[in-house]
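Filed under: proteins

Residues; backbone shape codes:
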Amino acid sequence: MTMNKYCRIVVKLGTSTLTAGTDFLSPPRMVELVRQMAQIHQRGCKIVLVSSGAIAAGRERLGFPDLPKQIPAKQMLAAVGQPRLMALYEKLFDLYGIFVAQVLITRADLSNRRRYLNSRNTLESLLDQGVIPIVNENDTVTSEEIRVGDNDNLSARVANLIEADLLVLLTDQPGLYRTDPHYDPSPDLIHEVVTPNIPQDIWEAAGDAHISLGTGGMLTKVQAADLARRSGAHVVIAAGDQENVLLRLVDGDALGTHFNPVASTLESRKRYILASDLAEGSLIIDEGAAFALRDGGSLLPVGIIKVEGNFERGDPVSVKDTNGVEIARGLVNYRSNDTEKISGNRSSSILTILGFAYGDEVIHRNNLVLV
């Protein structure tokens, strides 16, 4: 059995990759990329696909109308193209017995704590069921979201959301060059970036890079790489037309431009929790719960003695022992009123008490840091 170098993978497909450099979606290119993703999925890896191409698909579907270059026209094209794009993906992945799900989100969904938590839970539930989520910006209703680099940066945020260990940005170039290959006959490919801060000459090279059919150029891909690597992900910019590019990258081949992670996903999450402003609330827990936390467990409602203050689902709160000493900080799954109702009860009673449940834990161990 093939050992996987990476287990959680976000693949971002740009418009130029999906169209193979033409004005039309390229079924052969899409078939090939889906085949590779299916093989990776069948190895046991969890994949999220961030796909551009809705506007291009809409433009093709309507026969390339002469439209003004304004937001409403782009929204209209996205509305026409998105279902066609999803229908193609569903048909192709179905050849391998893999279900897909459409997830339309905006950056705002990933900036607000509660919406962030809801988005993450949705993606995690899909991945747990063996479904491949296909993510795109909700272009049809969020006018400010259709702009340069939307899906490049969105893919980095999704990588952070699911704690991916690999983000692959496929484009029409073999990687990032120090000079623009459209004008330099002998461009120098940048193979690896290992420094914590991306050097200024690389930013300058990306800023001069050619912008292709999509809404993002190389600059936005470097921006995405910088964001994702600080969340613990390894990032690669590579050409979508290279043979078995995804399979080779997942196996660790040195294709394209690699950006090494600055921190592990665990370190990144701990930094986020510790750096967050604490909500006006805290949880007082019993000795058994305190022992469980120190032993690497989650905080269950049965161990909560008292709920102090007000907080919303997804807020960072302080966890204290019976002496009032803070022992941990974490992101709560339930707001203060609901936490108070279920405190002291077993997890199996949450649904009965509240009428809904966001999980057995008030704070999952992945969202908790001992202090």
